[in-house]
Each structure stands twice: as structure tokens, then as C-alpha cells.
Design goal:
2 helices, four-stranded antiparallel beta sheet
Length: 166
Amino acid sequence: MISQNLWKIGDCLQIDSVQFGDDHIAILKVAYPPQSYLDDQRIVPHVSIEKREPTLAVISNEPDLPKVGLCPSHSVDFIWSSELLRCQVGEGSGWDGFGYVAVSRVADDYLYWVAFFERSNGFNLVYVENNSVVATPYLGWEYVFDLASPEKITIRTRAEQSGQES
């Protein structure tokens, strides 16, 4: 399987998407406006992910698809559906603001899914909350992934997470 083989060598496809271990892919339409705004004395890019049904397509032609190396920065192990899983976050190799979040099985490193973003910046924190993975890139907002349907992504500020107004 292509996704598993890429995962085993520390790579994934360089496409804004959620890539599943069974070689399906959910292409994400991610809006990255060219400007940032000042919020609480820090620059915060305004990022949103279009809410729509994902396009699932079988990954079929590996040599023609761009790949990127993955550089992990943090991971957390947790039990979900009676399995010990690992969520790993980090950045893509290279000069760009690549970031990724991945969930795999601890026993054999089977990849369940990896979410890759070309301009999120690297992720450096992760925790599990109410059947969701919450990952934070270096710039500070939070990406929330439903464990059962990781293509359903919510982005929130830390103020929204704690119930405060932003």
C-alpha cells in the first residue's frame, strides 16, 4: 500500500489532504489569505477549511505525486476503540510552512491517517479530547480532528477553546 510505504520511510504526499492508510485521500480546500492580522500582540494567519463532503479517490499513481519528508516534533499515545494509538505531529522537510498530524497504531506503526497542510506551519503540540485530536502549530491556533472522520476539521483559537471571546 502506497500510504503505508510512504509512512514507513517518513514521507507523505505533499497535498492539502487527509491521507488514509488504505490509500484513500480526502482532498481539502484550504483558504490561505495572503495577509495576516494582529491579535493580542502576535501575528495570526487567518486560515479556514471549507466545510464540504471530501472527495475520496484511490491513490493510484505514486511516481507522479509530490512527496515530502516528515520531521516529528511531538507525539502522544492514547487508547481509542480498544487500541493503543499514537498521534504524531510535526513539520515537513524543506523551507516551506508545511505541517502534519498523523494517527498510527503503536503495535506495528500501521498508519490510520495523516493530515498534511502546505501552509499551516509545523505542529508542535498535540492532545486527545472527547474523541478528537487537537493539534497546535507553532503560530498557536488549534486544529481539531474527529478521530472517526479526520477530514472533518475545525480550527479554533485558544480563546474559543477556553470559552472566551476572541
